[in-house]
């Protein structure tokens, strides 16, 4: 059964807007009265609409409805919901599986990787945008949060900390509305659909004689969204549509209202009908200037990742002393290190992020336990003694792409190009490997060691990039974004300093990175090609990094020819043998294991032996699955603290004509009312145009 369209939902009663209720220590005693007033005043409208729209086998459900209406004062309360019945949602589907990535035409794929020729799709895909948002001042949100907290004993180590009650978490400066407006103003012609992912709650029990199935829930929506303009396809503003999706629709195992952003992000791969590539947003993120798809994704260059190279996350597992977001990032980097080799990895910028639906599915296929564990935690703080921290899905997603690209290059060369078809590795393979890296085999002291200097590459020359984007139909080219590293030019984290290393021809030769490789350290003593691969790829990562640098140099200024097997090399059919990954053989991929030690990376195990396969064609599809560039887009991360500091920040941003991506965090410690007024004035000055779906109060 498909997910219910929001057109099938019924709006609960709407009341005129008002200021949010204050958050204070008295909320526990006041919330029940508040909810009773709020819900009872709207419940008659709710059930009239329900009865008109749904057929029940027993009309007696409505016969005993007896709800007291409260005085006119209740009209000062304001809220709206989209009721829906969870029993109409589909049952949890099968375990996650892989999704194909076919971005480039097969007609130009070989020339793209062997010679560096331009290759791109004839269509410029539109990108969906997905916002996660909750209204923290919603009385049902507060009620559900406090009820969930009460399920933990005071001495339970898994009990949420006081952080969940911080006032700043409930303040609303109308960020979401202006975040959407900013994207409409600066990216409209490239937008597919807008989707808003938000909370849902149980229907409150407000009267003793009111009975309603527990399968009904109330879905939260923004107070400014005009329910009267809702259509079967959602809300519309010109060609852009907006749909609302609720947590109960996407969680594999839903245990009630969830207040943990890390848990919610583990389920992003389940959002129905979203584009293959979409932009993930929070309500505190904005576009300040016009942008093009080149800041996020193009078929010519793949996914665009934005990272802070100077700020790195260690590979060790986080401890109880690890604070805040570093816990989730630390746990995720530990998982990546277990799978791809231990190393520091850079911080993923807290700005608009491009996400691949296929990569989310692959992540959940490899780490189902970690995703299920994290999704079950309703509060971010619930990580008891000795338990792993929640994962950071967006951190995992970005670095997984980079690591899969590195892994694919090394596997293509060691196992696909050099190793025997039966996975054997001998003296001939060892010598060939060394000589292909540029080393001399016959040396007087038998010490085979050499220095490798990075090569000049033309992949990301600005004029070349602009030409490729123009030919592929991306109007506006790079815009304010620049590309600083490409997966076509090796591995982004090799010898990573405070910035990603450029290798365009204008870089002085003495600034190109260098490394040293030793034959005995990297290649000696192995009898299987897959063991050589695992050693240099994961166990001694410096070997693998330097091998990639050497082979990129041997490939010339464009392409990856030195990594690729001969066009005629094939893996033959083995009668009576089936594929290693049943049902996944049509999607090229390397082992789906949590630890590299547990993977069988031999040709037969990876590619299957149920049919004859061309190694080169298979590897080309593997490589194009994980293409990426590291991008730089002028961005600003700001915190609001007090009235004067906020005024200074807003003035500085208004005078800065370079910032394109903006994040504004609410860290206000004093003068909230003044800060709110200043910030709202700033937002209205930059994004004043109302969307069609907004209410006109």
Automatic annotation (TrEMBL):
Pfam families: Stealth_CR2, Stealth_CR3
Any one of the GO BP annotations: carbohydrate phosphorylation
GO molecular function: UDP-N-acetylglucosamine-lysosomal-enzyme N-acetylglucosaminephosphotransferase activity
Domain of life: Eukaryota
Protein's UniProt keywords contain Iron: no
GO-annotated cellular components: Golgi apparatus
Membrane-spanning ranges: 33-50
Residue ranges occupied by any Stealth protein CR3 conserved region domain in the UniProt entry: 349-403
InterPro entries referenced in this protein's UniProt entry, alphabetically: Stealth, Stealth_CR2, Stealth_CR3
Keywords: Membrane, Transferase, Transmembrane, Transmembrane helix
Domain Stealth protein CR2 conserved region: 219-300
Similarity annotation: Belongs to the stealth family.
Name this protein carries in UniProt: Stealth protein CR3 conserved region 3 domain-containing protein
Species annotation: Fibroporia radiculosa
